[in-house]
Design a protein that fits this description.
Layout: E1 5-8, E2 23-26, E3 32-43, E4 46-48, H1 60-67, E5 70-72, E6 78-88, E7 94-95, E8 100-101, E9 105-106, E10 111-118, E11 125-132, E12 139-142, E13 145-148, E14 153-160, E15 170-175, E16 184-191, E17 194-195, E18 200-202, H2 208-211, E19 222-230, E20 236-243, E21 250-257, E22 274-276, E23 280-283, E24 288-295, E25 303-311, E26 316-327, E27 331-333, E28 337-344, E29 349-357, E30 363-368, E31 381-384, E32 387-390, E33 394-402, E34 409-418, E35 425-434, E36 438-444, E37 447-451, E38 456-465, E39 470-478, E40 484-492, E41 497-500, E42 510-512, E43 516-519, E44 523-531, E45 537-538, E46 542-548, E47 555-566, E48 570-572, E49 576-583, E50 590-592, E51 605-613, E52 619-623, E53 631-633, E54 638-640, E55 645-652, E56 659-668, E57 672-683, E58 687-689, E59 696-703, E60 708-716, E61 722-728, H3 732-735, E62 738-741, E63 746-748, E64 753-760, E65 766-777, E66 782-793, E67 797-799, E68 803-810, E69 815-823, E70 829-834, E71 843-846, E72 849-852, E73 857-864, H4 868-877, E74 896-906, E75 909-921, E76 930-935, ...
Parallel strand pairs: 8-16, 9-17, 19-26, 28-35, 38-47, 49-57, 50-94, 59-66, 68-75, 76-84, 85-92, 93-100, 101-108, 109-116
Antiparallel strand pairs: 1-2, 3-6, 4-5, 7-10, 10-14, 11-13, 11-15, 12-14, 15-16, 18-20, 20-24, 21-23, 21-25, 22-24, 25-26, 27-29, 29-33, 30-32, 30-34, 31-33, 34-35, 36-37, 36-39, 39-44, 40-41, 40-43, 40-46, 42-44, 45-47, 46-47, 48-51, 51-55, 52-54, 52-56, 53-55, 56-57, 58-60, 60-64, 61-63, 61-65, ...
Length: 1436
């Protein structure tokens, strides 16, 4: 190549993993031909000495090579070869034609001239043609542009089509952009002339001459008119125009001619099929005339007809050949076949095909029925329509229906006959018919029940509660050879229209796991059927149907459903209640522990919701509502008997002065949900005495039966009426004979007053006392109004025993008991005993009367002396005893005697009461029996022997009967006993009591029915020797011990529901009274007080069934407990004891508390803490991060509540979660999750500083440090808001300051010195930012005011010595200052001085004088008008 090819760049660097473009430039200066010339590129790896830290130089690759220092990596050089091919030549175009000359051409005609252009050069040359001349439009060139390949040639066509007779001389030019800048390189003259014909015939070109089949060639003078007919027996019209280019009208005529070779032309034997429709006419000047010929073929052969077109005026004749060609119509089906696949018998499947006509004329068609219908066989195929007409360029839809009636394959060739078409159009149709084999079964407790197809079978769903659910499994089996679809539907209403099965929301409230699907062949499909009624209704009339498509008539399995659902008819006395304004009970937003019930704390606003059961069966009612601090629904799950009502207390205890709204949800029978809306608002309570002097009421010292009166006045300063009742703690005032009026509840309107009269009327001795009088408000807490004090000297008598029991005493004997009469009073008193006349001969007291001195006691003897005569007399006197005493004989022996009205009459004291009772019995006799003793519902046995003295074996049938209680079968025996000859056999008698026995005359404590003392029965064994063995059976059924023991793990601080399974051992319905008892820890202990139990008091059990009894438990502390569940039958008094062992584990987070605050701002949240114990409980708070409790330790009195505050003071902005907890040794741990968010703190108090220009001032910025640990703060000054850069006028004296840890949460004040040295007059601002890890960030706005320079001095200078003046340039730029003194005794070394910004210099001043003088150093500049003045004082 030499210098004709250049590469750019010649050298450079390619980074590792990168690429670099290279440019090849070819600049040939002479002809060139080169192929695959190698160009070598040398490559070597390099390492840069400045790699990693030096910046790349600018300027591209050359700059890199020149400026970057590198070292070549040894043995890394290699060569990369690039092969380059190139051709360079001089472009040229040439042709051998010198001109283009067209022969005379008829108007509207066209002639073509061909010639070649050649490219002799070695490169391709593009070209472009254009025509110059006035008649250039008469010529066209093809192609107008293109490229001639190297050493190639191109064929060029020039067309000449004159439209008028004119001069057509033009020039054809060819140019190339490669040659002479696009100038023409070929010039060819174009010449041509036009001839005006008598007429011009507009016929399209035809290739019929080349396709014509004849022995005689066709004369070129004939114009060919080709007519194509689509089929035979159809008229086809051919139209074309003849133009008159002359200025005169022309008359014409068409004549048929018979050429000399007519005997050899095609198909000359048939009737002439051609007809001229325009045989004569006149063509007007410069107009066209339409000629028409008609072609009606009778066969499919090609027809020819020769005609002459004669112009009558000029005698001009043109010859025409009419060629008629018959073509097959393009009519057919859009698809050749239809495959219906496998179809169910009698099922109809449809497919459509299109009969398409692609011709421009219509065709009639008809389906041949014999092609798909077989005589004597069932027809499986039908077609619609079977005939019609298909329009031009359109289609007809034909529907093919396949309905198999036999289980076999089908194959049809359906023929469609098309008019004027030789062969019919054939459509192949295939299909297979098959049958469904299915069965359905329902899973029932006794096994699967098969449902017969075509029959309606029943299924009883039972009578359910609304929202209860029952499931039934159905199994659909497919025994067919193929899969089939199925669907499950419901028939409802009078018309039994099938409906799809939806969800449970609409009747009949049925859902299906598979409403439709595919059953696999030889497989079983499980279908789950669920009935979950949402409202009361009946299923009668509902039919569940499983339908399987087996043809037009589906195979169905029908199941008539019976049963339904009923809604528990529980009515509420109200559905919404507004408590209105109510007094605030406690302050606290979060509850720690389980709150007390109203029975334990009656300070709340309460309303009773009455739930009435209108149903004919008992209902279980419960609530999902979880108690809020301000609202409690005191309802545990309970039974409401049919027709009965229950009161449900709703307690409203507002905690704040705000509006409260809540919706309470109740659940009846575990399914029906009912709602009650409640609302109310809180307000404070203020009930006080008018004066403070009324707070203490003193009755002084009085004697018995003396009355002392006092009066106080109460005022209501609350914003709402207050209803209250006066009461004392534990009734101690009433015990001390203190009463008040009004004693009933009273209501005071706001600011209304009421007088309270206090009366002290003691009847016995009362020690000195001082007790409070409390106002119990219906809508708030108790208010202590005043204290009452006083004392009384009187008699106080007491008996050591209030009742005496003698037990069994034999008739005729006497039993005595000792007791004491005590006098605890200050005065003595007489006494005497009075006994009713009918008991006075049986009971006696000795001494019967006497005197008791103060602080003395007398021994009394009470005697019981029953005799037969006294008992008979007592029976006669007691008219209420008209029947024989239970368990006694004819004389009344065994009868219990009790007297309840033995009175001790005292002077000056209320009578004392004494009760005495005993039982008179006779000496018991001896009886023999077979005795049993066992726990109730526990089997035991006793035995006796039967001796066989004979020589034959005995087979004995013992007869056992239970006589008491009648109708039972507590005693049993083996049905047959075998006794061998000469031996004896033991007979076992079994005793299984289902009811307990009791002492004679006792009744069931629940039902009140009498309970037998012994279960009695007999066993009789007759022997073949004429003797018999008979025993009396006596059984004692003891109370049962604890039954099964359950175990469960329960979380602390959360209510847990425990299920206990109970089985009814009788064959009749039983209703149990249920009681819960805490066995461990010991009831009354501190641990037991931290466990709360709640459960339903009754339980109904159907005969022989097992159900679960549920009770709730709430535990405060980790540990374990044993709960005993006792169920006592209301009818029989029988009971069951079951123990549940519970393990309590640590509680999780009890609640999430949301707290938001800005940094260093305090947010509070109250937590109400309940103490259910009988002893005080101490709570200690544990926190993290920015939280603490106030107070940190809280002691809650027994059976009360208090509030503790959680404090949140964030120091850094952000958000997150923290764990806080309250710990109590008595009640365990109360964990809470706090979701907190801290927003950035605002600006601290702004700091304002003032200083003269050139001087400075220092002041301390004070802020409060809240962190619990020592924090080192960093301080800096930033730009104030709205300013671009930080001010240089503010400086922090110390960039760091240390703050000590805060003890007990008290903040520590911290001070930071800030200096202000102005650099310009006016106001400037800055932002002080103080931050430290763990202490947060403080921001304060700094505002500085620069004052004019102030005088300074005096500066004392000794005579002949120098004085120094310190001066600082306050500006932020170098400044020129002028220095001058106003006294010549003082001298400065220079009058002007340039000082750098913020730089301080020392100015020397000399003083020389023999006396003391004063002067001033004046420093000024252009930036301020007020100079700096330093007073000078020279001393000698």
């Amino acid at each position: 190549f030499g210098q004709q090819v250049e590469v750019e760049p010649l050298e450079g660097f390619v980074e590792a993993g990168g690429s670099r473009p290279l440019t090849l430039i070819c600049k040939p200066s002479e002809k060139l031909t080169a192929e695959k010339v190698p160009i070598v590129c040398n490559i070597v790896n390099v390492s840069f000495s400045d790699e990693g830290n030096a910046e790349l130089p600018s300027g591209g690759a050359d700059a890199e090579a020149a400026e970057r220092e590198y070292e070549e990596v040894p043995d890394s050089a290699q060569e990369l070869t690039l092969q380059v091919s190139a051709i360079a030549d001089i472009p040229a175009l040439a042709t051998e034609v010198e001109d283009v000359n067209f022969l005379p051409t008829h108007m509207f005609g066209s002639k073509v001239f061909h010639f070649l252009i050649k490219n002799p050069s070695g490169i391709a040359v593009p070209f472009e043609w254009r025509i110059q001349g006035k008649q250039a439009s008469a010529y066209t060139v093809a192609p107008m542009s293109g490229t001639v390949l190297a050493e190639g040639e191109k064929d060029i066509e020039v067309h000449f089509g004159p439209k008028e007779v004119e001069n057509f001389d033009c020039t054809l030019l060819c140019s190339s952009p490669f040659i002479d800048g696009g100038k023409p390189v070929i010039r060819l003259p174009l010449t041509g002339s036009a001839i005006r014909p008598w007429c011009h015939i507009e016929l399209p070109s035809s290739d019929y001459r080349s396709r014509r089949q004849s022995d005689v060639p066709l004369d070129p003078k004939y114009h060919v008119v080709e007519i194509v007919s689509l089929g035979t027996h159809v008229k086809n019209t051919k139209r074309f125009y003849v133009c008159n280019p002359t200025a005169e009208p022309l008359d014409f005529m068409w004549q048929r001619e018979v050429p000399m070779f007519s005997q050899n032309r095609p198909d000359t034997g048939d009737e002439e099929p051609f007809k001229c429709l325009t045989k004569k006419g006149t063509i007007l000047p410069s107009k066209k005339f339409e000629m028409s010929f008609e072609f009606s073929p009778q066969s499919s052969n090609t027809k020819e007809s020769f005609w002459s077109f004669v112009l009558l005026g000029p005698k001009v004749e043109e010859h025409f050949l009419l060629a008629g060609i018959v073509e097959e119509p393009r009519v057919g089906m859009n698809k050749p076949s239809i495959n219906f696949g496998e179809r169910l018998l009698q099922g109809i499947a449809s497919e459509t095909v299109q009969l398409v006509n692609k011709e421009h004329i219509p065709f009639s068609w008809a389906i041949d029925a014999a092609s798909f219908q077989e005589e004597g066989e069932l027809q499986a195929l039908s077609i619609s329509p079977t005939s019609g007409v298909v329009g031009p360029d359109s289609s007809v839809t034909i529907t093919v229906n396949f309905k198999p009636l036999e289980e076999r394959p089908f194959n049809f060739n359906v023929a469609c006959n098309i008019k004027r078409k030789k062969e019919p159009v054939v459509l192949n149709v295939k299909g297979i018919g098959y049958k469904i084999h299915a069965s359905l079964a329902i899973e029932e407790p006794g096994g699967r029940r098969v449902i017969n197809s075509g029959l309606t079978e029943s299924l009883d769903m039972g009578m359910l509660q609304v929202h209860e659910q029952r499931e039934v499994m159905m199994y659909l089996r497919n025994d067919s050879k193929r899969n089939f679809n199925f669907r499950v539907q419901m028939l409802m209403g009078a018309n039994r229209h099938p409906k799809p099965i939806g969800a449970f929301e609409k009747p009949p409230y049925i859902a299906i796991s598979k409403s439709q699907g595919v059953a696999e062949h030889h497989e079983e499909t499980a279908i789950e059927f669920k009935y979950a009624p949402r409202d009361a209704h009946l299923l009668e009339g509902s039919i569940l149907q499983v339908a399987i498509p087996a043809g037009p008539v589906e195979e169905t399995f029908s199941i008539a459903l019976t049963g339904g659902a009923k809604r528990s008819r529980v009515e509420f006395s109200f559905l919404s209640h507004d408590f209105g304004p109510c007094f605030i009970a406690r302050g606290g937003a979060t509850m720690a522990g389980e709150p007390f019930a109203t029975s334990q704390d009656s300070r709340y606003e309460r309303v009773d919701l009455i739930a009435t059961n209108r149903d004919d069966s008992d209902c279980l009612i419960a609530t999902n509502f979880q108690r809020e601090p301000w609202l409690d629904v005191q309802l545990n799950a309970a039974m409401i008997e049919a027709g009965q009502s229950m009161r449900i207390p709703i307690v409203f205890s507002p905690r704040e002065e705000c509006e409260y709204i809540q919706r309470i949800e109740f659940v009846v029978n575990d399914y029906t949900r009912m709602h009650v809306d409640v609302r109310g608002r809180g307000c404070p309570l203020k009930l006080e005495l008018i004066g403070s002097e009324m707070q203490n009421v003193d009755f002084g010292v009085t004697k018995g039966n003396e009355v002392v009166m006092r009066q106080v006045r109460v005022v209501n300063r609350s914003p709402r009426p207050v209803t209250f009742e006066l009461d004392d703690e534990k009734g101690e005032l009433a015990e001390r004979s203190v009463s008040w009026s009004p004693a009933h509840p009273i209501t005071l309107r706001p600011r209304q007053t009421a007088d309270v009269d206090l009366k002290f009327m003691p009847m016995y001795r009362i020690a000195p006392f001082r007790l409070p009088l409390i106002a119990k408000c219906e809508h708030g807490a108790e208010v202590r109004l005043l204290h009452v004090q006083g004392t009384c000297h009187a008699i106080e008598m007491r008996l050591s025993e209030h009742s005496v029991f003698f037990g069994d005493v034999v008739v005729g004997s006497q039993a005595t008991r000792m007791l004491r009469l005590h006098n605890f009073g200050d005065l003595g008193a007489k006494f005497r005993f009075e006994i009713a006349t009918k008991y006075s001969k049986i009971f006696s007291v000795s001494p019967s009367e006497g005197f008791v001195r103060p602080q003395e006691d007398i021994v009394l003897t009470v005697a019981f002396n029953p005799t037969l005569e006294k008992i008979q007399e007592l029976k006669r006197a007691d008219k209420s005893r008209r029947s024989k005493p239970a368990g006694g004989d004819a004389f009344g022996l065994g009868m219990g005697i009790a007297v309840k009205d033995i009175r001790c009459i005292l002077d000056g004291h209320a009578p004392l009461q004494l009760e005495a009772s005993g039982k008179c019995v006779s000496q018991p006799g001896e009886t023999q029996s077979l005795e049993f003793s066992t726990e109730v519902r526990t089997k035991t046995s006793r035995s006796f022997t039967v001796n066989n003295p004979t020589e034959t074996d005995w087979k004995l049938q013992p007869q056992v009967a239970t006589q008491d209680p009648p109708g039972t079968n507590f005693f049993t025996c083996d049905k047959e006993i075998s006794v061998p000859a000469g031996k004896q056999e033991t007979v076992q008698v079994y005793y299984l009591p289902l009811t307990m026995t009791g002492a004679e005359g006792t009744n069931s404590p629940v039902s009140g029915k009498p309970r037998v003392a012994l279960h009695r029965g007999t066993v009789f064994v007759g022997t073949p020797d004429g003797n018999a063995v008979c025993y009396e059976l006596e059984g004692t059924a003891l109370p049962p011990k604890a039954g099964a023991r359950l175990e469960s793990r329960v979380p602390c601080k959360k209510k847990h529901t425990q299920a206990v399974p109970i089985r009814n051992w009788l064959h009749e319905r039983q209703r149990f009274e249920v009681s819960l008892e805490l066995v461990e820890p010991e009831p009354g202990s501190a641990k037991a007080q931290g466990i709360n139990l709640q459960g339903v008091g009754t339980l109904d059990l159907p005969p022989g069934l097992e159900r679960e009894y549920r009770f709730s438990i709430y535990a405060y502390h980790e540990g374990s407990a044993i709960v005993r569940v006792s169920l006592i039958s209301q009818e029989t008094g029988e009971f069951v004891n079951i123990e549940v062992a519970l393990e309590f584990y640590a509680a999780e987070s009890l609640a999430t508390i949301r707290m938001d605050a800005a940094c260093r701002q305090l947010a509070k949240h109250k937590i109400a803490v309940a103490n259910p114990l009988m002893q005080p409980a101490r709570f200690t708070g544990t926190t993290e991060n920015f939280f603490r409790f106030s107070p940190e330790t809280l002691e809650v009195p027994p059976r009360s509540e208090k509030t503790i505050e959680l404090l949140f003071r964030p120091l850094e902005d952000g958000e997150g979660e923290a764990e806080v907890m309250l710990k109590s040794n008595e009640l365990g741990t109360y964990p809470y999750t706090v979701s907190w968010r801290a927003s950035p703190a605002g600006l601290e108090k702004a700091m304002v500083l003032k200083a003269p220009l050139g001087a400075s001032v220092v002041e301390n910025f004070k802020f409060m440090h809240y962190a619990r640990e020592t924090v080192t703060y960093n301080a800096k000054v930033e730009a104030a808001p709205g300013h671009k850069g930080p001010s240089i006028d503010f400086l922090v004296e110390s960039s760091q300051v240390s703050a000590p840890a805060c003890a007990n949460g008290d903040p520590q004040p911290v001070e930071l010195p800030v200096r202000f040295q102005p650099s310009m007059l006016g106001e400037c601002r800055g932002l002080l930012v103080i931050s430290g890890p763990g202490g947060g960030e403080y921001k304060a706005l700094l505002t500085g005011f620069a004052q004019p320079p102030q005088p300074q001095g005096p500066i004392i200078i000794e005579n002949g010595k120098q004085g120094i003046v310190e001066f600082r340039n306050p500006f932020d730029k170098p400044t020129d200052f002028s220095l001058q003194v106003d006294n010549p005794a003082f001298m400065v070394p220079t009058r002007a001085q340039r000082i750098d910004p913020q730089k301080a210099v020392q100015i020397s001043i000399n003083f020389k004088s023999d006396k003391v003088q004063g002067g001033r150093l004046i420093i000024s500049c252009d930036k301020v008008s007020t100079p700096w003045i330093f007073f000078l004082k020279g001393q000698v």
